[in-house]
Amino acid sequence: MKEKARFLENNGSRLHRRRFFTLAGAAAGAVTQFGPSPVSAQCAASTAIGERSCDVVIIGAGLSGLVAATQLKQQGVDVIVLEARKRVGGRLLTVFPIPSMPNVFIDHGGQWISPHQDHLMALANKLNVLMFQTPVADNSLNIDFHNGTISRYNPKIEPYPPYWTQPDRKGAEDGVKALKMMYDDVPLAAPWAAPHADQWDDKTLVGWLAANVTSELARALLLRGVTGVFNSSPGPLSLLAALFVAKSAQDLIRHFDPTGPDMRFIGGAQQIPIKLAQGLSGRVITGAYVYGIEHSTDGVTAYASGLTVQARRAIITLPPALACRIRYDPPLPAARDHLTESTPMGWVIKVHCIYSTRFWRQDNLSGTVASDTGAIRVVVDNSPPPGPPEPPGILVAFIEGEEARRLAPLPKSERQKEVLKELGTYFGDLGPQAANPKLYLEKNWGDDAFARGAYGGYWTQGLWTTYGPELRAPIDSLHWAGTETSPDWNGKMEGAVQSGLNAAAEVLAAL
Predict the structure, then answer these.
(1) C-alpha 118, offset from chain centre
(2) Angle 71-72-76 (CA atoms, 0-180°, nearest 5)?
(3) Do 260 and 115 contact (CB within 8 A), yes or no?
(4) Which of 125, 195, 396, 474 has the largest CB neighbor count within 10 A?
(5) In 195-312, where do the E strands start and end?
(6) How many Cβ atoms are within 10 Å of 102's Cβ, its own excluded?
(7) What angle is formed at CA 249 by the lines to CA 142 and CA 134, rounded to 5 degrees?
(8) Averaged pLDDT for residues 457-485
(9) How far apart are CA 232 and CA 491, in angstroms?
(10) CA 15 → CA 294, 306, 367, distances in Å?
(11) Interhelix angle for 216-227 vs 239-248, to 10°?
């Protein structure tokens, strides 16, 4: 490709002046297929070749990029969004319809909206994406699998499984209080500026729990409750990073003192980015893998296969681990490179098992399972909204962290065998039904070339205090977005929306 050769030949050269081109090649409109099955009949996305110009080019058509583009367009700014995938949505991925089940959907990516996620709620309402609460009876029972023994209990009556002792419960409650006291001192916009930042960043969350919480059961509960979406990390989360994440995404509050039920989107969460893309009137270009960016204080040029886009500013919305794979000319400052190269992604394989009915209701079970061993340690009822007609039953299970890395190289059939065997064990007398779904579906986010993991990037020991200020700092004409950059609700869909709004405001101030 000529533009690729030019970029490589001129590596090290600066963009000294703004160059505005009209489209020199043919542009072909395309109806994009979103995910393994079509979620929408049409979307205003296209493929293109040639040279284009705009005010702002946005790299990535996930929630943050599309929210930023929508905000800028509303202010009269000409935008182009470049997306490497042949779909929009990033880490949101809805499969609809399910084969042989025309009215059923599943979300392989982000799916839940929690109380106080006001920006996401407002966006969904504006786009007319409706929500529902997964039906669970008030007196239903959770399943707990511990040391090979199954327990069933009602979490609304008794928040802990029956084998928990009073010292276990006190350990969890005291641990929550201690962590809350610490994270109250963490400023979300600059966690590296916390009074004890250096001390906390030098420790791991696991190390702090081992030193301060004597109950093994309480430590395990706090680890999941504090780390939230980052509990699948392949390395040690620093204590400072854990405090930031817990405060940002309100995981401690939501886990131990629920403020209300989580909701889901009727028809799937990916509808939101699809509808945002439709509102951008052809400004979203899919199948456009950006491999190089030339930048200066005067402007930016983004290079994709068959396409070059010139702009005054750029917003890069990729996770840090992927943003560093773009070749920048001139190279980014070393501190920014070190930050992105040191921010790994967690690893999750999300599994859906679809059944004819919600069979677990026969035994008054909620469908929720927690286990301390095995490939799947979290299971939740993920069934569609109630009928008529009566919808099928769906269980979603999560293979995370070490187990995801262990099972990812295996054939799907072997993973399926292991998952279904464990479901059969967890559900006891109903095990034969649990182990024989009508359909088994999975999404391995670690092997996704344009995600490389889930749920998000995270911060190991020393990273926040060494490179934290580089995360959101603009460089020349480059700005950064994505849920990993959001002070509030970091790692969540709400964080992605807020980061898009923040980046749009930053760019408007700079134009």
Answers:
(1) 18
(2) 120
(3) yes
(4) 396
(5) 263-265, 284-285, 290-295, 300-304, 307-311
(6) 8
(7) 35
(8) 95
(9) 12
(10) 7, 20, 57
(11) 60
Phi, psi (rounded to 5 degrees) for 460: -90, -175
Domain count, the chain: 1
For 104-155, how does the pLDDT look when each residue is reduced to its tens digit (9 = 90+)?
Answer: 999 999 999 998 999 999 999 999 999 998 767 678 999 999 999 999 999 8
From the number of C-beta atoms within 10 Å of its C-beta (0-12, 13-18, 19+), residue 408 rates as middle
For residue 260, the model assigns a pLDDT of 63
The CATH number for 52's domain is 3.50.50.60
Strands 348-355 and 439-444: antiparallel
| Domain assignment of residue 304, yes or no | yes
Instruction: Give the separation between CA 380 and CA 371, rounded to whole angstroms.
Output: 12
3-state secondary structure at position 293: strand
pLDDT bin (cut points 50, 70, 90) of residue 14 is very low
Identify whether 234 is part of a domain: no
Does residue 38 carry a pLDDT above 90?
no
Question: To 10 degrees, what angle do helices 216-227 and 205-212 make?
Answer: 150
Short-list 234, 226, 486, CA closest to 348: 234
296-310 pLDDT per residue, tens: 999 999 999 889 999
Distances (CA, A) of 393 to 27, 88, 136, 437, 498: 44, 28, 12, 9, 33
Phi and psi dihedrals of 418, rounded to 5? -70, -45
Say how many Å lie between the first and final Cα of the chain, rounded.
31
Task: Tally Cβ neighbours within 10 Å of residue 147.
Answer: 7
**């028809």: which residue's tokens?**
267
**Cα 123 to Cα 259, 269, 405, distances in angstroms:** 21, 12, 35
**Residue 474 corresponds to which tokens in the numbers above?**
């603009």
Residue 237: band (very low, low, confident or very high) from pLDDT cuts 50, 70, 90:
confident
Q: Which domain, by its residues, includes 71?
A: 2-91+269-332+475-510
Task: Tell me how many helices (H) and strands (E) the chain has.
Answer: 17, 24
Lowest mean pLDDT among 53-67, 267-281, 453-467, 491-505: 453-467
Q: Look at the alpha carbons of 407, 410, 415, 418 in this order and tell me if their dihedral is positive or negative.
A: negative
Mean pLDDT computed over 371-399: 92
Asked whether residue 254 carries a pLDDT value surpassing 80, the answer given is no
Whether 60 maps to a domain, the answer reads yes
In a domain, 228, yes or no: no
